[in-house]
Amino acid sequence: MLLALHGVSKRFGALRALDGVGVEIGGRAVGLLGPNGAGKTTLMRVCLGLLTPDEGELRVLGIDARRDPGAVRMRLGYAAEGPHRIPGLSGLESVAYAGELCGLPRRTAILRAHEMLDLVGLDQARQRPVEEYSTGMHQRVKIAMALVHDPELLMLDEPTSGLDPGSRDELLQLIVRLRDGEGPAVLLSTHLLHDVERTCDGCIIMDRGQVRYAGPLEELQRQLGDDSYELRGSGELRALAEALAGAGHQVAWGDRPDSLVVRLRPGAGPAAIWEAAEATGSSLWQVMPRRQRLEDAFMAAVAQGGAR
After folding, report:
1. What pTM, to 2 d.p., does this model score?
2. Which residues lie across from 203 on neighbouring strands?
């Protein structure tokens, strides 16, 4: 279990940044999703022990984070949002220094720094001053600094913010490699749904300080599915399209002449499609549920108050 929170709240004056948050989630890569101001960064800082919650219980990697925040931090790597660099240091020196701050002996820290810079694709730039790095390189060196002490969980706060498309793609590929390798689990905080859909197997959706959903991505998309189906058949499907539309279903032509996209009216099941096909003499060879986009599922979870 990566995170287990029960009734966690955090106030800043009159603002309730976390409002009775309850969530239990595991996995290799978890997206922390929500609009700006949803409470994502506050939740990460509470889990890191950088902020103390006003109430509630939380365990990170099975450790009581309120009772022993130091033990939690030693098992976490954290790459905060925004630029973080020490002028005058090279990439190698920056990562090695981060390792020493985490308690690694200097020789070990330097060896680990070389390994992490290789991992994030900065091996050719390790001796360059960090002031000369591009935005994408800065993001990758931050990840190397967060990984140098071999954490069990890597927490990334808006890592693709401000990146050009090429740099963003490279960083997302890095997260996928971490997810699929033997390194730490990843908690990715972002407002970019595509980043989560591409890299994560689970997600937490937050809105106004509350968790609206926590669990596998596929389960979210299944729970909040919209009863849409893609049909493919042999021959003319116009009569079938007219029959389905006449029965109150939403019908649109697909990306091929022999395909339709049908959104069933509330209460109807896929049997309605087969009945209409039989009645119109239409020959169907595929009736496939459409996979809902994460964007649709996210909006539905926030609008519905979410399934926890």
Report:
1. 0.77
2. 31, 215
> Exposed (0-12), middle (13-18) or buried (19+): which is 273, by Cβ within 10 Å?
buried
Whether residue 286 is predicted with pLDDT greater than 60 in this model: the reply is yes
Task: Tell me the mean pLDDT in the region 25-37.
Answer: 92
The per-residue pLDDT for range 103-151, each reduced to its tens digit, is 999 999 999 999 999 999 999 999 999 999 999 999 999 999 999 999 9
Look at residues 71, 25, 21, 72 and name the one whose alpha carbon lies nearest to residue 42.
21
Place of tokens 């968790």: 211
> What is the model's pLDDT at position 257?
75
Which of these, 4, 3, 12, lies nearest to 209 by C-alpha position? 12
Rounded distance, CA 175 to CA 195, Å?
10
- Give the C-alpha separation, 289 to 308, whole Å: 24
What are the CA-CA distances from residue 87 to residues 110, 125, 126, 133, 251 (Å)? 19, 16, 14, 11, 59
Tell me the C-alpha distance between 28 and 63, whole Å: 18
Q: Which residues contact 265 (CB under 8 A, 6 or more apart)?
A: 247, 248, 249, 250
Count of alpha carbons within 13 Å of 12, Cβ hemisphere only? 7
